[in-house]
Amino acid sequence: MVFSSLTFLYFFLPVVMILYFFSGTKVRNVILLVSGLLFYAWGEPFYIVIMLISTLIDYTAGRLMDKFDSDDKKRRACLLVSVIMNVGLLSIFKYSNFIFDNISAVVGQTVTNPFVSVNKWLNDIFPFELNEKRIDLPIGISFFTFQSMSYTIDLYLRKIKVQKSFLSFAAYISMFPQIVAGPIVRYEDVAAEIDNRSVNMSKISIGIAYFVKGLAKKVLLANNIGAVWTEIKALDYGEISVLTAWIGILAFTFQIYFDFSGYSDMAVGLGKMMGFNFPQNFDHPYISKSISEFWRRWHITLGSWFRSYVYIPLGGNRKGMKRTLLNLLIVWALTGLWHGASWNFVLWGLYFGIIIIIERVGLGKLLEKLPSAVSTVYTFLLVVFGWVLFDTDTLGDAIMFFKAMFGGTGVFADSYSLYMLASNIVMLVICAIGSTSLPDKLYSKLNRKSGAAVSYAMPVIQAAVLLICTAFLTDATYNPFMYFRF
Amino acid sequence: MLKKKKKASAGVSVDQIEKLGKKSVKRKVAISAVTMILFFAILIFFAIMTVFGDKASFSELENRYLSDPPKVSAKNIYSGEFSDDTETYVADHFFGRNIFVKFKTYADLFVGKNERNGVYIIKGSRLAQRVDEPDSALIETSINAVNTFAADNPDVPVFFMLAPTSGDIYSDELPKNAPMLDEKNFIENVYSGLSSDISTIDAYSVMSLNKDSYIYYRNDHHWTSYGAYLAYTAAAKKMGFTSAPLSSFDIEHASDSFKGTLYSSALYDGIEADTIDFYHPTNGCNITGEYVYKSFGEEPEFYDDIYFREYLDVKDKYSAFTGSNQPLIRITSDSTGGKLLVIKDSYAHSFVPFLAQNYSEVTMMDMRYIQISYKELIDVSEYDSVLFLYNAATFSTDENLKRLTY
Fold it and tell me: Which chain A residues contact residue B119 at CB under 8 A?
């Protein structure tokens, strides 16, 4: 299920929340687990098994580590099992197609992904309809494996205490607010709350505010501006004007930000309603003054996960210049690969890795001295170029698109681009302003000046936004049978 | 907090602060309560109304049947079909669906988008279908199919009429720079690709010349009866019959509340509703009936009128012209003229009543509903002429003409 569906919003959410509010503390984890499993199974009736296996193994690994408290060899073995299992699941379900496609390309003949035969085997035994040609990606696998690993690794490092209750641990992994698209909530973040949290009206209303804000970002902004990119992305890059290319990639720039950060806001909001404090995942990344800063503000929980569990264990910056550079490249290649199994993503990750290295060795200092407008534009442009790598289908497409952005087709603006600009300029401007910190600043200023009026208006505004989002969500299912073609 | 402390030391009593604090705490509680109640009240209200409200099985606005309740079965649940069906069902029957969807139109207009679901909204004037540059390979296939048809039936004269759509005729009203196929150019290109055995009919000029008259519906993608009449006069010149004069028809305003396909797409209420006119011959030939062939191998249904008035009471009013789209429709009249085969899209429906003045039998064949070889349905050699009648939008996207080759 996704948050931006009428079924979730109007049926799943109120039913679960009402049950949750009126249940005792102990029953709440049961509701959390059951609703999480239902939420997950709604879209992935089969792959829920994968999540449960991963949960069970990590829970057991945790208990064993606790049991062999003084035997470091055994503790290390438990950790190893957990990490290998999680990375293994990710490799099979996310990367095996990619790996075997590449092997096929290298040897010059088709090498079939052996895991596909497991799907065939399962289809024969059970009434599943698993893909028999490729391995499909289970929803959220990149998130729940990372969350799970944060538990076993931190437990090994003795940063946290063991979770003895399987219910609590399973509820942590599968709770629906963050299961599909993060933020990557580390066990450490919610260790206290998973067994002891309170729900009250104030938290619920703060949660609602986050949720509605996130819903609006996703439904009103991301989906609408995203339609512009969908249209332009499908064009022949060899024929589009400079302006068309820029409108397209800017549309994607805003789409991905509002989509992802909107989803994170909704997750944080739902968490708050249920008594959790999830970490923030975005902090106005598009106004950053360097790429290093951008990555401290974009998908914050992923960056910090890689920092804690890959970069620092590799030695971070404590083993000399050469090793630091290597560590950075490893982390950034992995960050890229985490986003998807294709060379475009690896390249996209390395692209940022290299820029960050350059900023480290001197450019960063220069950026600090430059006027902030210059460093903001520098950062924003580099991020936008990054999105070209990120969202074009092949490397060839990316190059073609770059060419179009810089006048490769020889046309700066044609009538199509002018039409697209006129039709979407208002949305683009709204998105641009919306991705700065201006709205937040404006709100707190208004709140300070005319406190009561603004705060009383907020619930009404939120209700109106909820209804507008509902209108937009309903519209997405509007499907007139037009006999234009009949 | 720090600020308050400073103030307190500057002469404000502790009591006052407590009062202020209490007031703001009270206000916070009140706002939290209102937030929570409003949010959940909306969710629960719509959920209940959706579950218990009346459920239509057919949406007139969308011209389609709405989904049935999802079927619960192990297989459906395993395969994920149950989830998908539930989501569709909830969306289809969501309380206030049509109002919500309409709201989006106005939100789009508000942010400067004058195009909705492929339809341009021209405030104060009309709605117009956006027609994009066609796939040239598809057009070539269609043209070749028509040429093959003509070559396969060398003894029957073949005519071809490609009608422009309102978006091109009124292109000066479209939003600035709006993408719109240059249909004049498109029609010329198609005509030049047709073999010399095929006579082309210029409908574009007569439509363009009469653009100040009511020749296209404002809320539907079809031409009006008058538009169709003008095209009929253009056809007469090429096809060699004398068109019945306008004065020989008695015009009935059958409906003045027609909002058709373009309205369904754009959902913009600000355009004046359309009038549907029936042209009844007064001193010409009488139409003797209509035979509708709904499926292959079955006997046709017979109707003694070509106007299906029951459609005037529903949204899909254009279907009042000869009924809805069917594979084969034959109209007979007491004319002494020959037999005509029309291979067509729905533009023909308001057009054929005029042809019945000049042909004793007009058979409309719709390639979009015929999955078998047309040779199994009709014998072209029985006809005196064949007319292809398409509008530019259909012809530029339709993939069914290729079936004329087998």
Answer: none
Q: Do A481 and B64 make contact, defined as CB atoms within 8 angstroms? A: yes
Tally of structural domains, chain A = 2
Q: Which of residues 400-439 of A touch B (CB under 8 A)?
A: 415-416, 418-419, 422-427, 430
Closest residue in B to A206 (Cα) is: B32
Q: Which of A197, A222, A254 is the last residue of a domain?
A: A197
Nearest to B35 among A129, A208, A484 (CB): A208
Could you tell me which residue, B8 or A340, shows the higher pLDDT? A340
Indicate if A378 and A415 belong to the same structural domain: yes
Residues B47 and B191 in one domain: no
Q: Which of B107, B177, B264 sits opposite A482 (nearest CB)?
A: B264
B326 in A contact zone (CB under 8 Å): no
Tell me, yes or no, whether A220 and A192 share the same domain. Answer: no
pLDDT digits (tens, 9 = 90+) for A229-253: 999 999 989 889 999 999 999 999 9
Which of A:102-141 have CB within 8 Å of B? 126-129
Q: Tell me, yes or no, whether B351 and B230 share the same domain.
A: yes
Question: What tens digit of pLDDT does each residue of A31-69 get?
Answer: 999 999 998 888 777 788 888 989 999 999 999 988 888
Question: Could you give the ipTM of this predicted complex?
Answer: 0.87
Between the CA of residue A447 and those of A359, A469, B31, what are the distances in Å?
39, 25, 14
**Which among A204, A459, A472 has CB closest to B104?**
A472
One domain, residues A318 and A423: yes
Look at residue A404 and tell me if it is in a domain.
yes
**Helices (DSSP H) in A284-342: which residue ranges?**
291-297, 300-306, 321-339
- Structural domain contains residue B254: yes
A192 & A210 share domain: no
Residue B331 Cα, gap to closest chain A Cα (Å): 20
Residue in the structure block whose two tokens are 């055994």: A74
Q: Residues of A with CB below 8 A from B39's CB?
A: 208, 212, 459, 462-463, 466
Give chain B's domain count.
2
DSSP A253-267: HHHHHHHHHHHHHHH
Q: How far apart are CA B256 and CA B312, in angstroms?
A: 10
Q: Is A334 found in the same domain as A242?
A: yes
B306: which 2 tokens? 């070509």
Task: Kindly state whether residues A151 and A218 are assigned to the same domain.
Answer: no
Please tell me which of the candidates B43, B92, B113 has its beta carbon nearest to residue A423: B113
> B17 pLDDT band (50/70/90 cuts)?
low
Query: Please, what is the average pLDDT of chain A?
Result: 88
User: Do A215 and A253 share a domain, yes or no?
Assistant: yes
- pLDDT tens readout for residues B217-226: 999 999 999 9
B91 touches chain A (CB under 8 A): yes
Q: Which of A47, A55, A48 is nearest to A86 (CA)?
A: A55
Catalytic residues of A: 339
Does some domain include residue B220? yes
In a domain, A209, yes or no: yes
**Interaxial angle between packed helices A415-434 and A242-273, expressed in degrees from 0 to 180 and rounded to the nearest 10:** 30
* Dihedral angle sign, alpha carbons of residues A233, A236, A238, A243: negative
Looking at the fold, whether B34 and B150 belong to one and the same domain comes out as no
Whether A461 has its CB under 8 Å from any CB of chain B: the answer is no
List strand residue ranges (DSSP E) for B185-248, in order.
Answer: 198-201
> Among the three residues A197, A222, A249, which one is the final residue of a domain in this structure?
A197
Task: Look at residue A451 and tell me if it is in a domain.
Answer: no
Minimum distance, in Å, between the CA of residue A267 and any CA atom of chain B: 17
Q: Mean pLDDT lowest for which of A22-26, B74-78, B232-236?
A: B74-78
Q: CB of B363 within 8 Å of any CB in chain A?
A: no
In a domain, A466, yes or no: no
Q: Please give the residue range of the domain that contains residue B49.
A: 14-53
Residue A254 belongs to domain spanning: 204-434
The predicted-structure confidence for A333-352, as pLDDT tens digits, reads as follows: 999 999 888 888 999 999 99
Say whether pLDDT at A228 is over 80. yes
Residue B97: closest CA among B57, B43, B44, B59: B59
B118 token code pair = 């492929």
